[in-house]
Specification:
Distance between the termini: 73 Å
Strand order of the largest sheet: 1-2-3-4-5-6
Mean pLDDT: 87
Number of helices: 3
Helix content: 25-40%
Radius of gyration: 21 Å
Number of strands: 8
Low-confidence stretches: none
Length: 177
Amino acid sequence: MRKLLITLTVLGLISAFALAFVYQWTMPKILQHQEVGKKDAILTVLPESEQYQEVRKGDLTFYEGNKNGEVAMVASGGGFQGQIEVMIGFNPAAGKVYSIKVLNHQETPGLGAYITGGKFESNFVDKPFGEYKVVKRPVKSAHEVEAIAGATISSEKVAEIVEKAIKEIREVYGGEI
């Protein structure tokens, strides 16, 4: 019994050190990959900018593009299964959302996970500021968002995240209603 306990303890320590080593070795690569992904997302939602500058205003971080008053920010909120994180590009002076890019989510694979698809994200291309209504049919007005079939809650949560971000950006930058 004592021999088994010593063997299990040694194996546990070796495993712990191996995991710690792998974590320390991979973390810089993971962070670098995340930073490249964030940069790509910022430039994706700012259609005319080739560069941006990170700006802190209060507790919020914005990414100001170098063209036409473009501004991006990361917004997040609860989804159906967990947090949803979205990069959103705006033109506060014109009162419109340029586009969105879902960065992270824990939505149901095969249903809510389709919020990352170009079809759903295209609901927010050149969208005027305002409150959005999620509908289960093709959109008929600029303030409607077509829901993903079988994932209405995920669709509604993304719309709520965008609406909240619009309020935050208007508080900082002003802009049209």
